[in-house]
Amino acid sequence: MEPRKLFHELVDLREALRRIFEYVHPAPVGVEEVETSRALGRVLAEDVYAPIDYPPFDRSEVDGYAVKSASLVGAEEWNPVELRVVGSVGVGEEPRVEVVDGTAVEIATGAAMPRGADAVVMEEFCERRNGFVIVKRSVVPRENVHIAGTDIARGSLVLSRGTRIGFGEVAVLTALGIGSVKVFRKPRIAVFSTGNELVEPGEPLSRVGLVYDVNRFSVSSFLKSLGADPHPMGVLPDDVDVVAERVDEACKRFDMVVVSGGTSAGLGDVVYRALERLGKILFHGLKTKPGKPTLAAVVNSKLVLALPGFPFSAMCIALHLLKPVVEAMMGLATVEEPGVRATLVKRVWKPIDRSLFLPVVIKERGAEALAYPLPFRSGSVSPLILADGIALLEERSDYVDKGSRITVKLLRRPSRMLVVGSNDIALNTVLRDCGVLPLARVVSVGSTEGLRALAEGVADVAPTHLLDEETGVYNTPFLERMGLRGRAVLVKGWRRRLVLAYAPGNPKNIRGFEDLLREDVLFVNRNRGSGTRVFIDAQLRSLAKRLGMEFRELVKKVRGYELELPTHTAVAAAIAHGRADAGVCVEAAAAMYGLSYVELGWEEYDFAVSTDSLDNPAVRRFLEYLRDRGALRSSLSKFVGYEPHPRSGEVVWP
Amino acid sequence: MEPRKLFHELVDLREALRRIFEYVHPAPVGVEEVETSRALGRVLAEDVYAPIDYPPFDRSEVDGYAVKSASLVGAEEWNPVELRVVGSVGVGEEPRVEVVDGTAVEIATGAAMPRGADAVVMEEFCERRNGFVIVKRSVVPRENVHIAGTDIARGSLVLSRGTRIGFGEVAVLTALGIGSVKVFRKPRIAVFSTGNELVEPGEPLSRVGLVYDVNRFSVSSFLKSLGADPHPMGVLPDDVDVVAERVDEACKRFDMVVVSGGTSAGLGDVVYRALERLGKILFHGLKTKPGKPTLAAVVNSKLVLALPGFPFSAMCIALHLLKPVVEAMMGLATVEEPGVRATLVKRVWKPIDRSLFLPVVIKERGAEALAYPLPFRSGSVSPLILADGIALLEERSDYVDKGSRITVKLLRRPSRMLVVGSNDIALNTVLRDCGVLPLARVVSVGSTEGLRALAEGVADVAPTHLLDEETGVYNTPFLERMGLRGRAVLVKGWRRRLVLAYAPGNPKNIRGFEDLLREDVLFVNRNRGSGTRVFIDAQLRSLAKRLGMEFRELVKKVRGYELELPTHTAVAAAIAHGRADAGVCVEAAAAMYGLSYVELGWEEYDFAVSTDSLDNPAVRRFLEYLRDRGALRSSLSKFVGYEPHPRSGEVVWP
Questions:
Q1: In this predicted structure, what is the pLDDT of residue B320?
Q2: Please, which pLDDT band fits residue B471 given cuts at 50, 70 and 90?
């Protein structure tokens, strides 16, 4: 193994951009002419002056009669004026008759005004009789006439270089008769991934340690969505010579090169060494979290940007560093996106010397936007589909307080129904079946944290399954304690069976909780705050009582009690992969991983619903579905050990 | 000419949509499988369940040493613990050693955890010595370890049918190893324009009455931006038989047909007659303004939507009626866009029985969004590039009051610098030259209205050239009268020469304003509120004084005094096209149209700037440019009769 290389001086995002712009001068890479009809999404490389007036001639805006307004002075319902109709002008026709006092010309919407006429009277106010028209209204000069050049004047600067061409720009260009435009050539960008661990999606992961390649595809898709021309180039091996050779070659063929992975300061920092050999390193390491292992270099006057390997980290840097560079290369006269201002609803801790990319979901409450931080780790990928946006929390503080106003770069439109709370395998399926899944966002943080999010006004719905040990009652005691009376109702959800799961065939002969005290049994626990953890502790407490022990004393004897996993499936997976011998999870998770188990009983999985959200159409549809016993049973039947509660969908509290 | 056909019962937008959904059932037209790497922008046709856990195995989140957390209990800076390093795991490697008490395994970010280890200590807290590592910190179980399946659990519903695939979805799909996905086939939509008046962009307009085809290109671009597959089909002639034949054929080959033009109830309602022959008319005529001549029919169970011919009208209907239908055909699980809530800053009149599509520009003032209505006519095309969005003002009121909250569908990001006021030929060029044009939006409404927009807090800058007749002073008296002291400053702009223009060679022998009293001279005036109109009236007033006449009496003798045009170029164009004999405009406009003229004097074109906007970077850059005499002179030199003012860029009031 090669020696480790630590990061050089870390730089902040602003300094990183400054160095890139100073040394690489990202700028358009060429100009080409395209037909206006094919120009959508392209960036104008020229200023466009109107070659003609628009409208090109005085034209009627209505169907009616072109007149001299002076002819109709005083015309009214009870004092109509009769004009002789001396001709007509249809759309596209060149007017051949002239209007004089006492005459009119029939005219269609969009037709050119005949000489002499200065107004059009709408046909609603006219009655045609033989060769005459009886007009029951006067008109003012220019009434219903669109004068040539008043919308766009010939010679005026209509669209400027750097404008992205949308359908509106296509409309204006074609209206002015401009059949083709000069646009900037799309920058061609080579996109590599790096690492021997990467497997092509669609192929199997043949052993532990391998992961699928993500960044080559997500970064290319991101570049394409910006309007650039990405070329996914394949995976580079962890080999400095090969990386150097292929990046060097790509720098000759493309306008820019993006690499990801292989940039960490740890084992095998191949990209750094390859780029150091090929050109000048601009920076190595960013003062951001995630995103530290980012690296930029100039090779043959081309920018090589090396992104972190973790997909979420890579996309954070792509959004904040790659995007402005690519937009400059596209020639886009960017108006920096201001982002959405939102109020952070819980304190967020961060490293004091680094800025933090924080994925959030947004809840709009009246005029206010609330930002709820998504739980994430640097290796997470789910924030890329769950987050409504990413906030960049600046350096020089070790936390950002609840109530702070933060700026969020939006990734997608905020959801209509925000579900924050306990994780459940069947929840997304039920939401899908009742048709609200596309409108909803589900954030799994555990029951207790979900109730807190509801109290903060962020969550519309908080799934919860907290068992009050003293009373044996689910959920309501907790809602009372959190002061949610009047602010939330509790709606019965469904029941799911908890099991004590162990390896298939039960090689360690586990029969119940007392076996967790054995030296040879490694337990895996659930996280504090989760309903299942409350259930586990209740079981252990009653076991302690039976054995005449203190609870504290007893749990010390449970090996692995301190090993907390956050979801049912994580528990089942840990047992299936041999990392633990026993754990408590829902039957459906145990069944999915082919585990053996003993049944422990039914747990009640309910929904606290904010009273503010009771008239939210998506929430209403969901609650109606819960009350439809047949439909709910059919959704739940896909999961072993799930069934409706006798009161599913009913408000059971307060 | 065929007889006119009036509209049948008009329907509102909601009813129009209801009928389309009832009779056509817009729905996805098929499913196809695409590689995930090429799926950007497509719509998922299947629910995607996670085939594997993510992360697929427990992995280290940092570079460091995998340990048993129990081995490091109590480890501190002054009480380090020494562990024997028994191996290493790189990224992509399958761990082959097990960690037991007292040992550690070197591990890289992203590498799989070796058996026995339950945490990773970061290398920052370690010191390597020969075969040992000295650790100066304890770790809690799971510290720096990302547990398999905790980000995405195997078997969970990750993405649902109807989701648009963005780069985030590509990331998640590839992370889960999903190499291809089922997506809905893009609906193939034939797009026709109709009308003998239409000319291809790029060709010349050979005579009066002809206009360029716009809708075929703008509607196709719009459909493409939605993600559909538009096929621009050409222009249909005003011939019922041909229209019927080609639409019928297109209904067989495509999933939907969009036609535009030829739908007015006036002369030549060919599309209506063709569709009546081919199938069932769903509605003919919408209660919207613009957009009334809209028509839908079912032909061979395919929808044929006929849009109005005017480009802005067509796009309003495309946005509000075509879009939801196409999105349903794309299988998109749409979250209806809520639009932006904004405060209307001036009263808008509308027909009581029709809803109004109102193009607006948006000014963000703190948390508030102000909506300023753009002046437009049904035949305008410029709102499609000027408007930040379109508000739909509902029926059943004949006006919407100033201060009302309205909902705006955004077309583009609001500008950074909103310029509302007097029109000037050189303004866009100066803004372009100082680099703020892409950040700015210029709305031409005349000086007086511009100052009002500034008083309302909407305009950052209001170009103005109002001459106070009594004092002969430009602009400042008007700012005083409007109470703008303390709320705005006046910055000197530039000077431009006004001329009395007439036909080339001066065939009517016009020498000055007294010639406007002649019977054979047709004058063309400027609109009330414009600075030039104030100038004209001042000239006529002094002429009246000289002749010993009343002003009112005098202007009655000026033929065409009541004919108002809104811009300098419109005046010049009217004279060039023989619609008038004389008019007042800037020299540059007269020169552009090759007119002859007499010089009248210099006009001062200044800029009222809101004090709130003085620290707006775009505004600052503009004001700096005005002070740079050489740069400004160079920009203005492109226009005849333009020059800097001796005090250009200086604050001259208050």
A1: 94
A2: confident
Q: Is B191 helix (H, G, I), strand (E, B) or coil?
A: strand
> Residue A178 in 3-state DSSP?
coil
* Segment B354-384, tens digit of pLDDT: 999 999 999 988 778 999 999 888 899 999 9
Residue B29 and residue B187: Cα distance in Å, rounded?
6
Tell me the three state secondary structure of residue A164: strand
CA distance A524 to A250: 49
ipTM: 0.92
Asked if A156 and B442 count as a contact pair (C-beta separation under 8 A), the reply is: no
From A59, A70, A89, A77, select the one nearest A124 (Cα to Cα). Answer: A77
Could you give phi then psi for residue A162, rounded to 5 degrees?
95, -5
Q: Which two tokens stand for residue A122?
A: 């709408």
Q: What angle do CA B310, B276, B353 make, to 5 degrees?
A: 50
pLDDT tens digits, A340-387: 889 999 999 998 889 999 999 999 887 789 999 998 888 999 999 999
Provide, as residue numbers in chain B, all residues whose Cβ is less than 8 Å from the Cβ of A54: 381-382
Chain B nearest CA to A483, separation (Å): 31
Measured in residues, chain A has a length of 654
Cβ contact A176:A54 at 8 Å: yes
A196/B91 CB distance under 8 A: yes
Alpha carbon separation from A591 to A321, A579, A595 (Å, rounded): 45, 18, 6
Instruction: Give chain B positions within 8 Å (CB) of A154.
Output: 569, 573, 592
Of the candidates A133, A69, A57, A116, which has an alpha carbon nearest to the alpha carbon of residue B4?
A133
Distance from CA of B386 to the nearest CA of A (A): 9
Return all residues near B289 (Cβ < 8 A) that are at least 6 apart.
B350, B351, B354, B355, B356, B357, B378
3-class secondary-structure state, position A229: strand
For chain A, the average pLDDT equals: 91
Query: Look-up: residue for tokens 């306008």?
Result: A255
Tokens at B351, concatenated: 């027909």
On chain A, the residues whose CB falls within 8 A of the CB of B163 are 438
Using CA atoms, how far apart are residues A489 and A478, in angstroms rounded to an integer? Answer: 12
Q: What is the C-alpha separation between A639 and A629, in angstroms, rounded?
A: 16
Which region, left, alpha or beta, applies to residue B650 given φ > 0 means left and ψ of -120 to 50 means alpha? beta
Q: Which band of pLDDT confidence, cut at 50, 70 and 90, is reported for residue A268?
A: low
**A1-16 in b/e burial notation, b at 16+ Cβ within 10 A?**
eeebbebeebbbbeeb
Please judge whether A167 and B225 are an interchain contact, meaning their C-beta atoms are less than 8 angstroms apart. Answer: yes
A162 → closest Cβ in B156, B333, B438: B438
With helix as H, strand as E and coil as C, how does B508-529 read? CCCCCHHHHHCCCCCEEEECCC
Task: Suggest the residue from B150, B216, B425 to mutate for an interface test with chain A (most A CBs closer than 10 A).
Answer: B150
Distance from CA of A492 to the nearest CA of B (A): 22
**How much is the pTM?**
0.91
Determine, for residues B92 and A4 on separate chains, whether the beta-carbon distance falls below 8 Å: no
**Gap between the Cα atoms of B434 and B417, Å rounded:** 13
Cβ distance of A432 and B56 shorter than 8 Å = no
Q: Which residues of B touch A217 (CB under 8 A)?
A: 36-37, 170-171, 174
With 60 as the cut, is the pLDDT of residue A328 above it? yes
User: Residue B379's closest chain A neighbor by CA?
Assistant: A61
- Which residues on B lie below 8 Å from A570 (Cβ)? 147-150, 153
Q: Which of A159, A214, A268 sits opposite B174 (nearest CB)?
A: A214
Contact B174 A91 (CB under 8 A): no
Of A171, A174, A563, Cβ closest to residue B142: A563
Smallest Cβ–Cβ distance between B202 and the set A161, A177, A439 belongs to A177
